[in-house]
Design goal:
This protein is α+β, with helices and mostly antiparallel strands and 234 residues long. The protein has two domains: 80 residues, no CATH class; 131 residues, 2-Layer Sandwich (Muramoyl-pentapeptide Carboxypeptidase, domain 2). 56% of the residues lie in helices and 16% in strands. The longest helix is centred in the first third of the chain and has 21 residues.
Length: 234
């Protein structure tokens, strides 16, 4: 999980737990002010929340971000103009479209994910599918290793715990990336699902990070996920 995503996760927690709008906005402001000298990080937060209710709350809680919002719009406009003048996609867009290829029949989730990446979400698809997997696990209430592994065997692939420190989970023949070919790991839904289960196991007292270090889509023999408790929620 990137630093921007950690901030977004904390903002979501504030949004969900603070009952009164005044308290909610104050808590969000206090959090965002800690990063006021890191413009690029705050820009990333704005990009990743664009089009959401949380984005609107962020701007309301911390008005100085409106200037960064304007800068982002100007940057996007320049990219668009450069693309049009060049008669096609800019290099970054070209790379994004060529991110993942299919070497055979793929799961519906893999196809949907890549379609959304190409035509609608860009690299935001990473965060969105991670969050979907995490929220799904939390809603299911899976809160022990046995249930997590059994569920993942049915929905993802053959799952096992490799070691406990740091907690390392292996998924073989993961449906999320079956017959996919990519330059970096692509199993965001699986990673998010594991994170959600683990947060349930610690009664959601921590935000759990899960990172995919190996992936069959890049030629590895299996998908490998490393987990850690990153932030304590008092």
């Amino acid at each position: 999980m990137t630093n921007a995503m950690k901030i977004i996760e904390m903002l979501r927690i504030i949004d969900n737990r603070a009952k009164f709008m005044g308290i909610k906005l104050t808590m969000m402001k206090n959090l965002l002010e800690k990063y006021k000298d890191n413009k690029e990080l705050l820009k990333e937060v704005l990009k990743l929340t664009e089009g959401t209710r949380l984005h609107e709350l962020i701007l309301e809680a911390y008005p100085p971000l409106e200037e960064l919002e304007k800068e982002l719009r100007e940057e996007e406009y320049k990219i668009k103009i450069a693309s049009e003048e060049g008669g096609g996609e800019v290099e970054g867009e070209k790379e994004k479209r060529e991110f993942c290829a299919f070497d055979g029949p793929v799961s519906l989730i893999a196809y949907t994910k890549e379609y959304l990446r190409k035509y609608y979400l860009g690299n935001n698809v990473t965060r969105i599918f991670y969050d979907i997997g995490k929220d799904y696990a939390i809603k299911l209430g899976i809160n022990n290793y046995e249930d997590m592994i059994n569920f993942m065997k049915e929905e993802f692939g053959e799952t096992s715990i490799e070691k406990s420190e740091p907690l390392t989970i292996i998924v073989r023949n993961n449906k999320e990336c079956k017959n996919c070919r990519a330059s970096e790991p692509v199993c965001y839904l699986t990673a998010g699902f594991i994170a959600g289960c683990l947060e349930n196991m610690v009664d959601r007292k921590y935000i759990v990070d899960v990172v995919e270090k190996k992936c069959q889509a890049v030629g590895d023999p299996y998908c490998l996920f490393i987990t850690r408790k990153s932030i304590r929620l008092d």
